[in-house]
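Is this the right way to post structure tokens for a design question? Let me know if I should format differently. Anyway, here goes:
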């Protein structure tokens, strides 16, 4: 491929960004067509898979990101144990509600969970997993919450369309593979 000399530049951009970087932005920075960026990344990913390398490129949250290979998760998790910051069950429940029902108000979350959600919502906002997305056209104009790109990135999703169907998560429901 004519643009192979740009593979190092793409790798450097992905590393420096630390966040998913859209192909269009990479193309703009390198002054090449977006199709060439996609082709280069496919080639780079193939090279990274075949070699004994610790990183790979994944498509997530509408862009590309340099990530640790899944086979090395155990080793990297040892580093993460030093700064373990797991979400509580209440936070995961609330995050699931927001992900599947968004946009959703605090009152709707509390109605589903049956308990107050103030502290959990604050935690999720602080971790930038959810954000305020507007106001509901109702009495008091309550805040509407939705997920963020951080949420997509954290859970390895490219878009909300990648979430499983709610019916497939219900007990006693079989999904066809």
């Amino acid at each position: 491929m004519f643009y192979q000399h740009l593979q190092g530049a793409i790798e450097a951009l992905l590393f420096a960004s630390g966040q998913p970087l859209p192909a269009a932005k990479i193309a703009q920075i390198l002054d090449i067509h977006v199709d060439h960026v996609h082709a280069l990344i496919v080639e780079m990913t193939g090279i990274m898979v075949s070699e004994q390398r610790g990183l790979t490129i994944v498509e997530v949250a509408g862009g590309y990101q340099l990530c640790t290979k899944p086979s090395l998760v155990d080793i990297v998790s040892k580093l993460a144990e030093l700064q373990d910051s797991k979400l509580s069950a209440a936070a995961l429940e609330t995050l699931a509600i927001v992900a599947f029902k968004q946009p959703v108000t605090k009152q709707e979350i509390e109605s589903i969970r049956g308990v107050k959600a103030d502290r959990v919502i604050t935690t999720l906002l602080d971790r930038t997993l959810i954000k305020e997305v507007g106001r509901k056209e109702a009495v008091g104009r309550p805040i509407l919450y939705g997920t963020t790109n951080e949420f997509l990135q954290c859970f390895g999703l490219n878009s909300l369309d990648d979430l499983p169907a709610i019916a497939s998560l219900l007990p006693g429901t079989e999904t066809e593979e």
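Format looks fine. Someone answered above. Worth noting: The beta strands are 55-60, 63-68, 104-105, 130-135, 143-147. The longest strand covers residues 55-60.
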